[in-house]
Amino acid sequence: MHKFTTKIVDMMKSEGFFEWQGGPIILSQIENEFGPLEWDQGEPSKAYASWAANMAIALNTGVPWIMCKEDDAPDPIINTCNGFYCDWFSPNKPHKPTMWTEAWTAWYTGFGVPVPHRPVEDLAYGVAKFIQKGGSFVNYYMYHGGTNFGRTAGGPFVATSYDYDAPIDEYGLLREPKWGHLKELHRAIKLCEPALVAGDPIISSLGKAQKSSVFRSSTGACAAFLENKDKLSYARVSFSGMHYDLPPWSISILPDCKTTVFNTARVGSQISQMKMEWAGGLTWQSYNEEINSYSEEEAFTAVGLLEQINMTRDNTDYLWYTTYVDVAKNEQFLTSGKSPKLAVMSAGHALHVFVNGQLTGTVYGSVEDPKLTYTGSVKLWAGSNTISCLSIAVGLPNVGEHFETWNAGILGPVILYGLNEGRRDLTWQKWTYQVGLKGEAMSLHSLSGSSSVEWGEPVQKQPLTWYKVM
């Protein structure tokens, strides 16, 4: 880490990017949100955080160093806040500025959950409340949404869209009214600057859930923030001999302590809404992926179940698990009509189960719980039966304690119920493994690879189908 950090700092210096060189970099950050891990891991993590801080300071960037969510950041490093609200936050030393390094404009998009949205009224209220409390720096996360292409998205279950309901969306388009309302908020705060930088606010109660925060300078500048933190009710307050109407959960900004130029809950910006339109005039074709289409050169066999990421090395999301079940002719279910049941326990993240080439079920986990269990009736016949499970990894974990040890894929047990013997454990018998899909190997997703197969008329409700549109 020392070598990597040194290289980055040296690169920035060589390009003249730091503020003292005339560049745009005004802050340096070492580590990110490591503090919560300290709480769990104790002294070893504290020692590492201290080492990282001292290592960073020695690099002499010429601009302040910060650590986000690091309550015990040593001097001169500034500990900062990340969150939806940070008005509660104070740095660990009184001489350090109060900084909000991640004001969350919403949240990331996860597969299987609604697209997150944070009303701009609430975001503006959070920012104004932070400034009202004496905050000196706000950085939005995200202000410009983006897209994680290819295999760069985090996980599990984090979508490739990283739009974050940001003021500028992932396509570079302005999202109104979020963009315009925040622009007006920033303008109002800028008007208050002479008073804001002069000292701490004087706070006075204006009611049960209302208060004023007044900033004054020695030269006569005055700015006031009038807050109504009641989430449901409007409030009329008296301030400096005048009446002000405050919407619920809002702050009014008065750059001269008299005139309201902005209220966080009153949106005057235009409202725009993205509209999806059907794309007509397109020609669709499909190609069906074969089940168990591996060759001897591509597949390998092992006793027992193997962890998925160790097998795929993240070169693909897919790993086939295939085993064989012999059914005797005297099995009672063959005549009773009561089908056996198959139970498959997986560490995640999604699973398609095929028996004798037919899809019998699909299950998937979630952001909160990526683990899953498939349980369902299966149609078996006398003789040899093929059970093929296509396990799917939906992104690699990127945050959490020892996330490098988190597993994916079928780790068992795998149990077949309803046979004459009662239950048959398939976990420790031979399994054949195939990394990836045949279509991936042929690069069907590319322009050149798509011409290597014969495409047909589009089919519906057919598993493992590739689609091409022209």
TrEMBL record:
Pfam families referenced in this protein's UniProt entry, alphabetically: BetaGal_gal-bd, GHD, Glyco_hydro_35
Source species, domain of life: Eukaryota
InterPro entries linked to this entry: BetaGal_gal-bd (IPR048913), Galactose-bd-like_sf (IPR008979), GH (IPR017853), GHD (IPR041392), Gly_Hdrlase_35_cat (IPR031330), Glyco_hydro_35_CS (IPR019801), Glycoside_Hdrlase_35 (IPR001944)
Annotated ranges, domain Glycoside hydrolase 35 catalytic: 1-188
Family under the similarity heading: Belongs to the glycosyl hydrolase 35 family.
Gene Ontology molecular function: any one: beta-galactosidase activity
Subcellular locations according to the entry: Secreted, Extracellular space, Apoplast
Name this protein carries in UniProt: beta-galactosidase
Higher taxonomy: Eukaryota, Viridiplantae, Streptophyta, Embryophyta, Tracheophyta
UniProtKB keywords: Apoplast, Glycoprotein, Glycosidase, Hydrolase, Secreted, Signal
Beta-galactosidase beta-sandwich domain span: 212-267
Leading EC class: hydrolase
